[in-house]
Amino acid sequence: MKIRPYQPTDLDILKAITVEAFQGVSIDQGIEQKYGLIQGHDWKWRKAGHVAADADREPTGIFVAELDDKIVGYISTWHDPEAGIGYIPNMAFVPECRGQGMGRKLLEYALAHFRELGLSLAKIETLEQNAVGNHLYTSLGFQEVARQIHFVAPLNSSDSQSSA
């Protein structure tokens, strides 16, 4: 596996990889299952938008994994130098490259990048149902520090479910 810097021409491929990889482990998918489409857009559109936002925020923090000159995965990062924290919002691989240690290598690459930047901590989040991510992250030294519950409230009164 070769790891290289992100190029803007990679974006559509990274979006497609992300949408496929986050099936079943996306907060936006859970919202859609409960409330349906929002503003005419599905969860896949929103998740792909997250990758575009990563590219807008810190394109030099995205690292692309290739096999035989084909993009097979990526990791996105950004950092807050004042806080000393590096963030990993997204990582995804094509199905045929999962479970082969490539995610570990990409995460190790991102952690080395954060060290080179002089950061103190790296932060990554995952959902409880992402068993692969939970195992991988803890095996690389990440420790759980908190759990979060995502609440969503419909803003259209016809969608509200009163429990008063």
From TrEMBL:
Domain N-acetyltransferase residue range list: 1-164
Keywords on record: Acyltransferase, Transferase
Pfam families referenced in this protein's UniProt entry, alphabetically: Acetyltransf_1
Domain of life per record: Bacteria
Any one GO molecular-function label of the UniProt entry: acyltransferase activity, transferring groups other than amino-acyl groups
Annotated SUPFAM superfamilies: Acyl-CoA N-acyltransferases (Nat) (SSF55729)
Database matches in PANTHER family: AMINOALKYLPHOSPHONATE N-ACETYLTRANSFERASE-RELATED-RELATED (PTHR43877)
Name this polypeptide is given: GNAT family N-acetyltransferase
Species whose genome carries this gene: Gimesia benthica
Organism phylogeny: Bacteria, Pseudomonadati, Planctomycetota, Planctomycetia, Planctomycetales
